[in-house]
Write a structure and sequence with these properties.
The protein is mostly beta strands. It is 4% helix and 35% strand.
Length: 207
């Protein structure tokens, strides 16, 4: 069970600037509408999470610096040493967080371009991606995010080779065992494996 006192939150991911790229994508690239009866399931998240109550004064201070209200922190799920959490900001905006071991790796508060969850944005992905100079597509170090009730699984399509599928459990998907191959796309799928949203993955060209 996740215990907040084990966390030492951080606001930035420290990586070698020229070797690795860590991306947390909130931008929706494409949306394919499903059947009308499924639309409602794309606009809700049933998992409200468990309150995280045991926070030190230092942890609360760090969360407040990130505009997160510590009293609203909730754990949706923990798996393979990774955790997915939600909260509200000090301005009462939605916040999304992940944790790896004893550290927070991603904290984002505020409104996305499209309301989440919705048909336009059924999933928020904050996977950890790595790439070396010259790579066209990154490799996925840890696949993770939050998905609406209507999203049943997440697919990773690679530049070459078969795709990799991860189930959505309790409105989350977490997997740090994705094959270490260049990934070109993360796709949200419904129970019939129809595509709901696509997040293309591409390494920015060096300037």
């Amino acid at each position: 069970m996740f215990r907040a006192r084990q966390l030492v939150p951080r606001l930035l991911v420290e990586l070698p600037r020229t070797l690795l790229i860590v991306l947390g994508s909130l931008a929706l690239a494409a949306c394919v509408e499903g059947q009308e009866s499924a639309h409602g399931r794309l606009e809700r998240i049933s998992n409200r999470g468990e309150p995280v109550r045991e926070l030190s004064s230092a942890q609360r201070a760090i969360l407040r610096r990130a505009t997160v209200d510590p009293a609203t922190l909730r754990l949706l799920r923990q798996h393979q040493g990774l955790g997915v959490l939600t909260a509200r900001s000090l301005r009462d905006e939605p916040c999304y967080l992940n944790a790896s071991g004893s550290r927070f790796g991603f904290i984002a508060c505020g409104q996305t371009r499209h309301r989440f969850p919705s048909r336009e944005l059924p999933m928020i992905d904050f996977s950890s991606l790595v790439a070396r100079p010259g790579d066209a597509h990154p490799r996925i170090r840890a696949l993770m995010g939050i998905a609406a009730d209507g999203v049943s699984r997440v697919a990773v399509h690679f530049a070459r080779g078969p795709s990799y599928f991860v189930p959505v459990v309790a409105n989350t998907y977490i997997d740090r065992r994705v094959p270490a191959r260049p990934a070109r796309e993360i796709v949200a799928l419904d129970s019939a494996r129809r595509a709901l949203a696509s997040f293309p993955l591409q390494v920015p060209a060096a300037k």
